[in-house]
Specification:
This protein has 175 residues and is mainly alpha-helical. The chain has six helices and four strands. Strand 1 (104-105) and strand 2 (113-114) form a beta hairpin. The two termini are 17 Å apart. Pfam families: MauE.
């Protein structure tokens, strides 16, 4: 596939919208019940108590903000990079819980906390997050997409400065 042509722009659009939707929905479902969000973070048994509370309260707002940035296509590359780092953290957390034999609901879409043994869905959670990570990685590599604020303002244009003249070189995919 030509990763610099019109097909790549549509692939980026197709990657951007579901990634944004997952982050907005996940954050919105958690923000309405911050106590459950803190309990979900606590169930991972990875952070000190004070940090569990901070992450439990703050993560939903961060997810919503990232999701909205990606949705409208504003600072797409940076937002996708941060989303990718969060996804790596989520994947690592689920792998850690599974390796330690804990039985929890990941709390990815609200709720969360301890569950009965055999009630976990770690493989599905990891697979979903790896798919989202691939979408975020694509957007870091090729952020140009349709229906984006970045595209409307030419944020993907690259300029070369030679002498005192500014020469437009095209979009970053054509460098």
């Amino acid at each position: 596939m030509n990763t610099t042509g019109p097909v790549a722009v549509w692939v980026s659009t197709a990657a951007r919208l579901p990634l944004a939707a997952v982050f907005v929905v996940a954050g919105a479902l958690k923000v309405v019940d911050p106590v459950a969000s803190v309990q979900a973070v606590r169930a991972y048994q990875l952070l000190p108590a004070g940090l569990e509370t901070l992450v439990g309260w703050g993560l939903p707002f961060a997810e919503i903000a990232l999701g909205l940035l990606i949705l409208v296509g504003l600072h797409t590359r940076a937002a996708a990079a941060v989303a990718g780092l969060l996804l790596l953290t989520f994947i690592g957390g689920v792998i850690s819980v599974a390796a330690r034999g804990l039985s929890i609901d990941c709390g990815c879409f609200g709720g969360g906390g301890r569950v009965a043994p055999g009630q976990t869905a770690y493989a599905a959670e990891i697979a979903r997050d790896v798919g989202l990570l691939l979408a975020a990685g694509w957007l870091v590599w090729r952020p140009r997409s349709h229906l984006s604020v970045d595209g409307a303002f030419g944020a993907h244009r690259v300029y070369r400065y030679e002498d005192t003249r500014v020469q437009e070189f095209g979009d970053e995919e054509s460098r």
